Amino acid sequence: MFSEIWKIWKNLSIWKKLIFFIGLFVLVFFMSFFVDYALGRAVGDGKFVYELHIQPGTGYKKVVKELIENKLIRSELYFQFLLKITGNSNKIKQGIYTLNDSLNTAQIINVITTGKVKTITFTIPEGYTNRQIAEVLLNKKIISDKKNFFDAAENPEIIKKYNIPANTTEGYLFPETYTIPYNYKPEQIVEMMLKRFFKNLATIEESKNLTPSELHEKIILASIVEREAKKKEEQPIMAGVFLKRLKIKMPLESCATVQYLFDKPKSRLLEKDLEIASPYNTYLNKGYPPGPISNPGLPAITAAFRPVESDYLFFLVKPDGSHYFSKTHTEHLEAKKKYIDVLYE
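Above: the chain's sequence. Below: its structure in token form.
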């Protein structure tokens, strides 16, 4: 039979052979188009939205089964065929994917193999404490329990990895806007913020070659300056004031370190608050508090490394948020009468 077909083929003219190949190509093209249209086209018009959760180690067959069960694809076999023929059967990435029924088979494969996972964005303002960061993450539903974040922020392995001479990462979680996948773990968030901290720190020349303890002191100072100074231009001056107080063995007398003792900052500290027995009370104790009291931004960190020397020894906040700096205690008391006592009388 085949020999007869071969004889017929040999006797065909070159034009007839060409027509045969053109016809065969057209037939294959239309068959492929029909199969793709019938089996690979989108199921719906986008009204149905589904979150596909792919866990680590999930095989492609389980993923395909979930897609067919939720009516996101037309053919299980065709989807598997495309995965294999395109070499993507082992390239499916873990994550949470937002899919809808307007995506065709090829588009769905592209989404789950390129890692176009569902993301969420959160912003940590400069000067937020770890407690406040946990609150932001909880409100954004990134974490289900603040304790999970605290455990990650106090994880000894992470602290050791980044050479932080403390039992917490307070002060080293860089305040910024972050975009993360929905399934990010607290440990991943903490490490991401730590990496951002050290990346920004590297832009400050004076930070190089410091020991962890020396850096820690700078971050403590920066964290206090961050909470005290609302105006960025005042931060270097304020850093200089605190360093001058340290030099003459005077207490730092920072209200911000006392505010750190409360879960939520008070609008105004009372005299009794300044008498709270705590190593963080810099009215009662000389020197730095045990650790950072906030997570400072780059301007405050820079101010700690590049303080401005001056004759100022005191300061107080004015109604507009700026500070009045004084050289003497007498001048400071006069400013207090002008700005503070009038404000609260």
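Residues 311-345 form one domain.
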